[in-house]
Automatic annotation (TrEMBL):
Catalytic activity as recorded in UniProt: diphthine-[translation elongation factor 2] + NH4(+) + ATP = diphthamide-[translation elongation factor 2] + AMP + diphosphate + H(+)
Pfam families noted in UniProt: Diphthami_syn_2 (PF01902), Ribonuc_L-PSP (PF01042)
Organism whose genome encodes this protein: Trematosphaeria pertusa
Keywords: Hydrolase
PANTHER family registered for this protein in UniProt: DIPHTHINE--AMMONIA LIGASE, DOMAIN OF UNKNOWN FUNCTION 71 DUF71 -CONTAINING PROTEIN
Region (Disordered): 584-611
E.C. designation(s): 6.3.1.14
Name of the protein in question: Diphthine--ammonia ligase
GO biological process, one term: protein histidyl modification to diphthamide
Domain Diphthamide synthase stretches: 6-240
Length: 670
């Protein structure tokens, strides 16, 4: 991926779309054009009330070209919210498609443009729609503010504080919340005094983590009029005209005679813009801590012998679950063509099996793709992406296994599907500070309903949902989310002498951040994939370190930390009735969520056992990464864990009689 992108900045005039431009610049990109969609003319109201676009204050938008010194392109919004689903699939009459002609026109004028930025924070609705259009047009989506309040220091106000610190001035021009009245209109939203007033006003009307303080629930809308001179060459002045009151307590500030004026230059530098730290607090702690790796490894398995028999191919189905493992693509027994042909044959066989079991490919939740050589990945992925061409494709793990792959095979595929299970997906394709973007035919996570223990006792849909969900998460390698580059020693300012530890911790953090968004409270197990290295001794160290990190992140909190967490967990009735103070802290549920775990240990006070951690020695990973973490999570109100499920063995060497057999192929199956 290019280190410096040429960005088209989608702007609404609001605080977030303008602030995100600064983050594009801070990450080494150049903004070549501004893009804006405006509502069709109406007799008396300039607010379209679009689900997708902010249209209040759109008359001021033309001034941004002069204020920022960046060419502006505009297009009228056509259509309506014809597709109102959370995750977007292209629909011709939907207002989202208005972006297509706009971005195409900009690409014609600026052929170097290869990315598009947005100010999305929590809105999956907006993000997925921009991503859909961007990917279709070959543009890299950038959403540097995505999940911003859930990054250190974990407060909603941190975004507004960061705006104030760089001198961005964005005025509130619409309020639509029971907590905010017209007294807030034309106040600078990032001013510390305004933030304090909003916290007090929103205390009774917002819920924990709903983004009310940053306006993510439509509580207010803003118009940016000034900012640091590195971006803002001039500032915008608007004279007050009138305030229009609408139903439901909505009030809109209208201005007149908007114009740009010169402004003094200040000493702001991009280095002054705060960017969220790479590591969460708890992962920074284990990165700095000494890990207990004293258990030892018996010895790593010897080099694998070449296989002459193909891996065992299994196809099985229960009432809802379907597993088809080690699908191969030979043209005839013992004969195989090039990788693309093998992939095409694999999907033909998969289609036949799905049809036989009355299962749709949209029911597939996870795939494991095994390659002989990682250099074949692009060829295999080309056919793979043509097959999984729908919204929220399956989560996926891809590894190369070298000569463990029996001749003449170059690729195998294993799939896991669940039918009629309320399938939900997380497919973030935008670069951000949060977690690696998945620009490709796989999702970060796919979740489905867990089957109830006793189906005969199920009484309607509500009981089905009460059983909880199983969350399949894609393999995570140590990519720095903002740049999508691999973590390197130069980026590891904490432990420069131990880059692998930084890589392992960062990839594990990605797994947990994704898991939190899906409500994961417990991992069934962890799997670390480590490419082989020449030194067996160093590989043993990596195996033990990976398992030690897994154990450390699952360790129970110290008594002090536990007491602090208990004090923060306020009763919902108290929050609503006794404590009318705004909860600024973005709560990040712990994994494991110990209040949800029912352990069969001898004492209820004892912590539940750590889920097992397996380590697989493989040939290579995507992007030449040194580790990939995999896990399946459970999201339920209560989870029973039996101590006997977790043997005490720290590391188990394969039986010498089976160490070189096809059973060493690793596919995540349940």
């Amino acid at each position: 991926m290019a280190s410096s992108l040429k960005v088209i900045a989608l702007i609404s005039g609001g605080k977030d779309s303008l602030f995100s431009i600064l983050h594009c610049l801070a990450n080494g990109h150049a903004v070549v054009a501004l893009a804006n969609l405006y509502p069709p003319p109406t007799p008396d109201d300039d607010d379209l009330n679009s689900y997708m676009y902010q249209t209040v204050g759109h008359a001021v938008i033309p001034l941004y070209e002069e204020a920022l010194g960046i060419p502006l392109y505009r297009e009228e919004i056509r259509g309506s919210a014809a597709n109102s689903s959370r995750d977007y699939t292209a629909q011709e009459d939907d207002e989202t498609e208005s972006l297509v002609p706009l971005l195409k026109r900009i690409k014609e004028a600026h052929p170097e443009a290869n990315a598009v930025s947005t100010g999305a924070i929590f809105s999956t609705y907006q993000r997925t729609r921009v991503e859909s259009v961007a990917v279709r047009l070959g543009l890299t989506p950038l959403s540097y503010l995505w999940q911003y309040p859930y990054l250190p220091p974990y407060t909603q106000s941190s975004l507004l504080c960061d705006m104030e610190a760089v001198g961005q001035d964005a005025r509130i021009i619409k309020v639509a919340s029971g907590g905010l009245d017209d007294g807030f209109l034309w106040a600078n939203v990032a001013d510390s005094r305004t933030v304090a007033r909003m916290k007090k006003a929103l205390a009774r009307f917002s819920e924990d983590g709903d983004g009310a303080l940053v306006g993510e629930g439509g509580e207010f809308e803003t118009l940016a009029v000034d900012g640091p001179s590195l971006l803002w060459r001039k500032r915008i002045e608007v004279e007050p005209d009138r305030v229009v009151h609408q139903s439901g307590g909505t009030a809109i500030w209208h201005g007149k005679n908007a114009h740009v004026v010169d402004k003094p230059l200040e000493s702001f530098k991009l280095e002054d813009l705060r960017r969220p730290p790479l590591f969460d607090d708890e992962f920074l702690d284990i990165l700095r801590a000494d890990m207990d790796t004293s258990a030892g490894v018996i010895s790593l398995p010897p080099d694998l012998a070449h296989h002459t028999a193909p891996p065992t191919n299994n196809c099985a189905k229960t009432q809802n679950a379907f597993v088809y493992s080690n699908i191969t693509g030979e043209t005839a027994p013992g004969l195989a063509s090039e990788v693309k042909a093998q992939m095409a044959n694999i999907f033909l066989r998969l289609d036949h099996a799905l049809a036989a079991y009355d299962i749709s490919k949209q029911d597939i939740v996870h795939c494991t793709l095994l390659l002989r050589r990682m250099s074949d990945f692009a060829s295999a992925n080309d056919i793979y992406s043509q097959y999984f061409d729908y919204t929220n494709p399956p989560a996926r793990a891809t590894v190369a296994v070298g000569d463990c792959m029996p001749n003449p095979l170059d690729v195998t595929l294993s799939v896991f599907a669940e039918k009629d299970s309320d399938r939900k997906g997380l497919h973030v394709q935008s670069q951000s500070y949060w977690a690696p973007a998945n620009i490709g035919p796989y999702s970060q996570a796919i979740s489905t309903m867990l089957p109830p223990r006793d189906r005969s006792a199920v009484n309607g849909t509500e009981d089905l949902h009460a059983a909880g969900r199983i969350v399949h998460i894609a393999g995570q390698i140590p990519l720095v989310p903002a740049s999508m580059k691999l973590f390197t020693p130069s980026l590891n300012t904490i432990l420069e002498e131990d880059s692998f530890k930084g890589e392992a911790v960062l990839a594990l953090q990605h797994l947990f951040r994704i898991g939190r968004t899906q409500g994961v409270k417990w991992w069934t197990a962890g799997l670390a994939m480590l490419p082989s290295i020449p030194s067996a001794k160093e590989q043993e160290k990596r195996v033990l370190l990976a398992q030690a990190l897994w154990k450390a992140i699952h360790a129970p909190p110290s008594p002090t930390e536990d007491q602090s967490a208990a004090e923060e967990e306020l009763d919902a009735w108290d929050l609503k009735n006794l404590l009318p103070t705004f909860q600024d802290t973005s709560r990040r549920p712990a994994i494991p969520h110990r209040n949800s775990i029912l352990s069969s240990s001898s004492s209820p006070a004892d912590p539940p056992p750590t889920p097992p951690c397996f380590v697989a020695d493989i040939s290579a990973l995507p992007r030449a990464a040194n580790i990939e973490w995999l896990a399946t999570g459970l999201a339920a109100s209560s989870i029973a864990v039996r101590q006997s499920d977790y043997p005490l063995t720290h590391f188990t060497q394969p039986d010498p009689q089976t160490a070189s057999c096809a059973a060493r192929f690793c596919a995540r199956e349940i």
